[in-house]
């Protein structure tokens, strides 16, 4: 995926997500969207400085997602999500050595974002 495509995806989603930032569901949606964009950068062939910035942003997104889990309300779901986020965190840290894991993390993020959007439309 080239830089222009990533930039265009970001611009399209930014406006929509900015409108939703006034509620917790919208904020988590924005975190997933940002994470997906940064994983796309890490999976591509970008200059080191760009990849390092995306790596930092992706790690921040993972930490936000981990901190948002409510283990008291649903311990099993929270533990499963935490495990996924932990896999993704490690894949981000090792993105150069294990590019396949970044691809897997992108797939996981896409599925989680779609599921999260479905929850919003149901609620």
Summarize the structure.
The protein is mostly helical and 123 residues long. Helix content is 82%, strand content 0%. It has a single domain, classed as Flagellar protein FliS (Four Helix Bundle (Hemerythrin (Met), subunit A)), CATH 1.20.120.340.
Alpha-beta classification: mainly alpha
CATH superfamily: Flagellar protein FliS
Count of runs of 4 or more consecutive helical residues: 5
Q: Overall mean pLDDT score?
A: 88
Q: How far is it from the N-terminal to the C-terminal residue, by CA?
A: 34 Å
Q: Please give the CATH architecture.
A: Up-down Bundle
The best one-word shape is globular
Strand content: under 5%
Reported by name, the CATH topology is Four Helix Bundle (Hemerythrin (Met), subunit A)
Instruction: Give me the strand/helix succession.
Output: HHHHH
The major pleated sheet works out as: none
CATH class: Mainly Alpha
Q: What's the number of structural domains? A: 1
- pLDDT under 50 segments (min length 5)? none
Percent of residues in helical segments? over 70%
